[in-house]
Amino acid sequence: MPLAQTAIFCADIGGSFIDFALIGPDGHIGMRQKCRTPTRDLDAFTKILMTLTDHQPHIPLHIALPGLRDPQKGICTTANIPCVNGIDLAKILGERLNRNVKIGNDADCFTLAETLHGAARGHRNVLGIILGTGVGGGLVLGGELVIGAGGLTGEWGHAPFIPSIPGTEDKIPCFPCGCGQRGCIDTIGGARGLERLHAWSCKETADSRTILTAWHAGDEKACQTLAIYLHYLSSALALAVNITGATILPAGGGLANDEKMLAALDAAVREKILRPTENPLIVASQLGNAAGLIGAAAL
């Protein structure tokens, strides 16, 4: 399936770097380069994209953004790039760069890419999951990317999932979340969350890589942390599978690179869903760090 009828400039915007490339109709990735993201200066942000695209004035620019774009108002919201908060970035860039600009959530772009060209090819209902610094997701239903009100879809990491019961703080890992609620899966699901969970469970500080390495070696404390981690994540994802009918969950982000952990999470989810299956549900991304660019091209 071609990504578009013409080549498209694509930028996967991160809090530290912009990953930029020209994506051809056949999916070929050319002119790929990285540059630092100006997070607090909109003029500098615009200038970098202008420099990257100026030599081809008529090619559209598609952007994967780590945040939301309200589909009705066009307003962007992102935690890591404050210079684009509260503005219609696509409109501003379109005027300044004199070209068509489209913007999508980076997890949506990831899910779309894996559905069209990666691990989820052939599946019509797909829940893409990100296990990175935090957790996120995107949703494809009936082969089409779903964009909800306010740009919110596939956010399986938010809502008060882990109960907050007074007097059980030492038994239930219910932590405040950046979204303003308590007990969200995002508080324990990403790399920083795994570290928070380990500190709560074992009363010791370690980074996520050290915790996983210790778990691989059979360390008792790490195994205790991972047992709690896998219980809560698999419960949340089983609920998401039962609601969406997703038949595959391609996973990206740093934690998804741990094959043993991903397999354990998959097994736990398949034990909890209503539809028994022997086929893996949670699978590693096939497109790796190119998924954001490829998905942006398909917006």
Largest sheet: 5 strands, mixed
Q: What is the fold named in CATH at topology level of the largest domain?
A: Nucleotidyltransferase, domain 5
Total helix count? Answer: 9
Strand content: 15-25%
What gross morphology would you assign?
globular
Q: Structural class from helices and strands?
A: alpha/beta
Helical residue percent band? 25-40%
Query: Which series of helices and strands comes N to C?
Result: EEEHEEEHEHEEEHHHHEHEH
CATH architecture of the largest domain: 2-Layer Sandwich
The number of strands is 12
What number is the mean pLDDT? 95
Distance between the ends: 13 Å
Low-confidence stretches: none
Radius of gyration: 20 Å
How do the strands of the widest beta sheet line up side by side? Answer: 3-2-1-4-7
Detail the topology: elements first, then pairings:
Elements: E1 8-13, E2 17-23, E3 29-36, H1 42-53, E4 61-65, E5 68-69, E6 76-77, H2 89-97, E7 101-105, H3 106-117, E8 126-131, E9 135-141, E10 144-145, H4 186-189, H5 191-202, H6 208-216, H7 220-244, E11 249-252, H8 259-272, E12 282-284, H9 291-297
Parallel strand pairs: 1-4, 4-7, 8-11, 11-12
Antiparallel strand pairs: 1-2, 2-3, 5-6, 8-9, 9-10
Helix pairs in contact: 3-9, 5-7, 6-7, 7-8
InterPro entries: ATPase_NBD (IPR043129), ROK (IPR000600), ROK_cs (IPR049874)
Pfam family, one: ROK
Protein name: N-acetylglucosamine kinase
